[in-house]
């Protein structure tokens, strides 16, 4: 078999792209010690109230179903199933080795966005002294739980963009995004950015300014 040397670089690039696609589509999990395990699929994982994984089941490449519980589960940092990434998110962004929850990567690319959302919302009328509900008035909204959104920049700086903590961080993120003229022009000319989500805006930036 002979290879045209003029075409060799293109063949090499094609093989590299193919390898990257195969690796990206592969289901896997990675531990804190950076050990990675490829698998056919991840069936489920459960955590306790502190975020620690207590039940984990996956199918290995030999088509064997492996189920691990509690202390038999390695310290997993990240999992990927069908292109969706789940990863540890520290409750305190300044204490990466402290308590954590497993969140989901909502945006992949130059800027990544990871979200943990455990917030529940209820609406209730005001209760009277006897336990009945006051039929007059508007129902009160009550939100309980934890919501975290972490944004990782190209220089690996991580910002928390949730609640009041996110106001200052947004300024730094927007500054970087608007350095891309194509995105800046699109942002100010397209009315969709008046109502779109933060994740949608970042995904558009990643697509326009890779």
Short description:
The chain has 210 residues and is α+β, with helices and mostly antiparallel strands. It has helices spanning 8-25, 166-177, 181-189, 198-208, and strands at 27-31, 36-39, 41-47, 53-59, 65-69, 76-81, 84-90, 100-107, 112-117, 120-124, 140-144, 147-152, 158-160. A hairpin with a 5-residue loop joins strand 4 and strand 5 (65-69).
Report what the structure shows:
The chain has helices at 8-25, 166-177, 181-189, 198-208; strands at residues 27-31, 36-39, 41-47, 53-59, 65-69, 76-81, 84-90, 100-107, 112-117, 120-124, 140-144, 147-152, 158-160. With 210 residues, the chain is of the alpha+beta class. It has a domain at 1-82. Strand 6 (76-81) and strand 7 form a beta hairpin. The longest helix has 18 residues, at 8-25. The two termini are 37 Å apart.
Q: List how many beta strands DSSP finds.
A: 13
* Oligomer state of the chains in this structure: single chain
**Helix/strand order:** HEEEEEEEEEEEEEHHH
**Poorly predicted spans:** 1-24
Class by helix and strand content?
alpha+beta
Strand-residue proportion? 35-45%
The geometry reads as flat
What characterizes the major β-sheet? Answer: 8 strands, antiparallel
Number of helices: 4
Give the neighbour order of strands across the main sheet. 2-1-6-7-8-9-12-13
Radius of gyration: 23 Å
Percent range of helical residues: 10-25%
The mean pLDDT is 86
How far apart the termini lie comes to: 37 Å
């Amino acid at each position: 078999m002979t290879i045209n040397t003029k075409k060799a670089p293109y063949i090499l690039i094609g093989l590299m792209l193919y390898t990257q696609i195969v690796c990206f589509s592969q289901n896997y999990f990675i531990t804190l010690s950076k050990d990675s395990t490829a698998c056919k699929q991840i069936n489920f994982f459960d955590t306790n109230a502190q975020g620690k994984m207590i039940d984990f089941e996956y199918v290995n490449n030999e088509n064997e179903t492996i189920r691990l519980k509690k202390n038999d589960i390695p310290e997993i940092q990240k999992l990927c199933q069908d292109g969706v990434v789940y990863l540890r998110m520290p409750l305190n962004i300044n204490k990466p080795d402290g308590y954590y929850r497993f969140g989901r990567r909502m945006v992949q690319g130059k800027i990544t966005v990871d979200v943990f959302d455990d917030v529940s919302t209820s609406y209730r009328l005001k209760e009277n002294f006897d336990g009945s509900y006051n039929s007059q008035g508007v129902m009160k909204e009550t939100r309980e739980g934890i919501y975290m959104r972490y944004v990782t920049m190209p220089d690996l700086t991580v910002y928390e963009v949730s609640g009041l903590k996110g106001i200052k961080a947004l300024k730094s993120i927007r500054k970087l995004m608007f350095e891309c003229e194509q995105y800046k022009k699109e942002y100010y000319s397209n009315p969709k950015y008046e109502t779109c989500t933060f994740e949608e805006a970042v995904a558009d930036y990643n697509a326009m300014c890779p």
